[in-house]
Amino acid sequence: MPNPLREWKRWLFLALVLGLVALGLAGRHVYQVATSPMALAEKGILEVPEGAGYNRVIQRLADKGWVNPGDILALKVLGRVLGVTAQIHAGEYRLSPQTKPLGLLNQLVSGDVIMHSLTLPEGRTVRDFLTRLRESESLATQDLPDGPEDQELVALLGLAERGHDSAEGWFFPETYRFSRGRRAKSILTQAHERMRSVLEKEWGNRAEDLPLDDAYQALILASIVEKETAAPSERALIAGVFVNRLRQGMRLQTDPTVIYGLGNAFDGNLQHQDLRRPTPYNTYTQTGLPPTPIANPGRAAIRAACQPADTDYRYFVSSGDGSHVFSETLAEHNRAVQRFQLGGQ
After folding, report:
1. How many CA atoms lie less than 13 Å away from 257 in the CB half-sphere?
2. Which pLDDT score, from 0 to 100, does residue 163 have?
3. pTM for the whole structure
4. What is the pLDDT of residue 265?
5. 300 and 289 in contact (C-beta within 8 Å)?
């Protein structure tokens, strides 16, 4: 008479053997799929949107024809077995005909994305920076502020807490790198933190007895220096001229501040009547520094404002070749103006 217990054990053993065989075959299939090149005829770019899950990425590969639809399950199993399905990064990934799913998975987890770059030049205004950000097709720009006085921007940077109502001058000019889809606003916060760091360091190394109350006034002065000259050899001298004027209670009388105050009313041609317009930025009618920076200065201009040249110059005029002629007295300055601005007339 058959022994039911013995028969049950036999079937259990057989089921285990078949299960192990099936598991081994499945594992072999997953391994083959993971280590075989994908079906790319040429180089391609895989874009992983912000918030996209691993399964969505696999489906996108299938939709592009880069993996066989029959291999989708194997790739999903691969991700789960390795425990990395929740660790992928958004961005663009460069693939080649030799790329294997396992290699791509390593790229997704390490965040080895294609990097884009955008340069915020020295001496430009916040509005200029915002325009550049909006023109970038690689950034998410839908939530950018309107301008330097935008209250959301001021709040985002914590400027109101520090007594400022404008973000002008608070972004460090530099080339910033980012992956596709990054929020443009995050570039602004990064540039702001960079500016705070640079300004703090340069202000900490400032010369003694400057006629500046704090680092913010140094930033304002630096923005004027930045707009007045791009010549490295002149920045400290021009800063020295303005420092001398501040010490003696003289008006700064610098055209770039007037232009900033005119805003959209400036048509590219500064006229004599503009120098009499009563704006807070008109340093021909107002004594002292303007209320905010007039641009975003670079490190060299900030350093010049914090460490101006020790000079007796109080005047300068453009020589017409990009450099300036400096004078100690008004009489010398008037002669320089006659020569270089009025053609000797």
Report:
1. 30
2. 92
3. 0.83
4. 87
5. no
